[in-house]
Amino acid sequence: MSSRKLIHAARRDFNRRLLQAGVATVAGTALFGTRNALAADKAVLGHFGSANPQTYAKATGAFQKALGDKAAVDFVTVSAGSQVISAMAGGSIDICNVGSSPMVVGFGQELDISMVYIEKIITDSECLAVRKDAGIDDVKGLKGKTVGLPFNTSVHFAFLSALKRAGLAASDVRLLNLKPDSIVATWDRKDIDATFIWYPILGDVVEKNGKIILTSGDLADQGTLVFDGIVVRNEFKKKSPDLVLAYLKEYDRLCTLYREKPQEVIQTLSPYLNLAPEKTKAYVDSFHSLTPKEMATDKWMGKPGAKDTGVLKTLRDQAEFLKSADQMRKVPESFERYVDSTFLAKMV
Question: Are residues 109 and 238 in the same domain?
Fold first, then answer.
């Protein structure tokens, strides 16, 4: 089978599996089209429409300035990780951030992509909240309780990891698969005792007689990492490694801006996204990135050739989780070929 047919077959199989799991996806050819050959003077950057550094770069022209006259920058706005992977399979996005779950599924389909950076770590933006009147003080207290969350997501993975570390099995709780936008109504009806979810939904349930008993950051201290990665198409990476490095260096600069001058970010993005400043601030406050030095340790990505890193372990754990949820046919023997730390090594 030709490489083109393999790519299209992988994309069809990937989309079919996501649809079976109830995950919204958009066919790459319908939304993005397929480029037969990438122009050497163009970089197509995907970004989500939230107040993240990629959106800030689009608003200020930061990536274009960083790439200079080496390439013209095009942006594609995405709303789901499945779109990112489908577009990369079709050759329509060169670089984009994506959650670890769809990224792992892409690796399982042997798509020609690499994770080259950690976009952000999930700490206090995704948490386990319980009803104050439910008599739950820790994860062990969830035994026999009803928990609602969206299945096959980062919070599902994090919740099952938390149960395992507390000595509980999924069968010890009544676990409901809820769409994110239905969680607050379910909470209001008192149909659930707890939820593991992200903002802004998390803030809503906390305001309505809820309290946080665990964050995704707590799991990191116990060895379970929850993160989003920056993924690159290997063809683009091989053709234009200088553009990938320039992108990552600029991304690191923007993350420093988020940490050190958040008000500058808020003043720029609030009018750009038509958001109230307090909502932009809430996102910026919950955005946690790593420095290249931190990322190059074995706790995270490690240096080129590292085989026992937190990222590799998490990718394998998450793949096992997705396979058990019928989202992957098989777990790759190794994820080392999908994690490329060579650009990171040049930034340390």
Answer: yes
